[in-house]
Amino acid sequence: MTLRAVDLRKEPVEAVLDHVKRSLGVCVDQETVVRKRRSVGARTDRNTWVRIERRGLDRIGVQGGDGTASAEALHGIAKPAWLAGVAWRDEREPVVWRADETELLPAAPVGSAVVTKEPWLSEEWWTAMNASLDALAAQHTNRIATPDTETLTQELVTATIHSVFSGVDTEVVDWSPAHADFNWANVTASVFCVFDWEDWGMAPRGLDAANLWGASLAVPALADRVRRERRDDLESRDGKLMTLFVAAKILGPYADPGDPRLGAARETAERVVKELQAG
């Protein structure tokens, strides 16, 4: 059966919310429901948050789609605690639904995934972000990151980069745990916290930093700050590859001509290509 493309911002989700209510024993506050392309979230009557995700069976892989629950084993990272979860297979489609109940966030998300206006972020915020990313990278897991639900392999890195930047040696040497969807919609301020852990796992060094840089390119000062804060990652060889990996997604065949990030992504990528070719 072919998996139907679905945008949960447009699909009815009442039956899914009812299933979660029965399974987790919570009532969902309808006024707080947040709908995204492949997930729905809402506050509960227990002063917790429930996030519900739809994922095709072909995107489950060996990890089972339990990213938020498995991230509870990570330490030293500012994130909401995981409390409970439930998963079930859709009766009509080759799809798995999963709902995870977590603590409420300590503050609001910074913005949309890609920002066009510089957010106010304190020095304490940047310190907390760095501490969390450093702590994450120092840990160990058998999980493999799944950015955009695709398993992050050497082959995927090579294909993505070479779709825009041919002739680059794309061999990755340093793999470490990453959030894999680290953008401005998944971090909070004024208190730093990172959430939505469904895709975390092993990834080339610098993926999270490169993702945040790519999400900041419409605000040059913010993109520069991200590069300064995560300099060690982004100036490593694998970090440069991840810069190209993210830039290729911005500049590739599905690029939006109106994307305000295009010029900055191309300029940085061209410099990075030269650095990699120079050895």
Order of helices and strands: HEEEHEEEHHEEEHHHHH
Query: Helical stretch count?
Result: 9
Total individual domains: 2
Number of distinct beta strands? 9
Description:
The protein is an alpha+beta fold. It has 2 domains: 90 residues, 2-Layer Sandwich (Phosphorylase Kinase, domain 1), CATH 3.30.200; 171 residues, Alpha-Beta Complex (Aminoglycoside 3'-phosphotransferase, Chain: A, domain 2). Helix content is 33%, strand content 16%. A 5-stranded antiparallel β-sheet has the order 1-2-3-5-4, with helices on one face. It has a two-stranded antiparallel sheet with strand order 6-8. The chain has a two-stranded antiparallel sheet with strand order 7-9. β2 and β3 form a beta hairpin. The longest helix is centred in the C-terminal third of the chain and has 17 residues.
Characteristics of this structure?
279 residues, globular, two-stranded antiparallel sheet, alpha+beta, Phosphorylase Kinase, domain 1, 5-stranded antiparallel sheet, Aminoglycoside 3'-phosphotransferase, Chain: A, domain 2, 2 domains
What is the compact description of this entry?
The chain is globular, with a radius of gyration of 19 Å.
Task: Give the SSE layout.
Elements: H1 14-24, E1 34-35, E2 39-43, E3 48-56, H2 67-70, E4 82-89, E5 95-103, E6 108-109, H3 123-137, H4 154-162, E7 175-178, E8 188-189, E9 201-204, H5 207-214, H6 220-229, H7 231-234, H8 237-251, H9 262-278
Antiparallel strand pairs: 1-2, 2-3, 3-5, 4-5, 6-8, 7-9
Helix pairs in contact: 4-8, 5-6, 5-8, 8-9
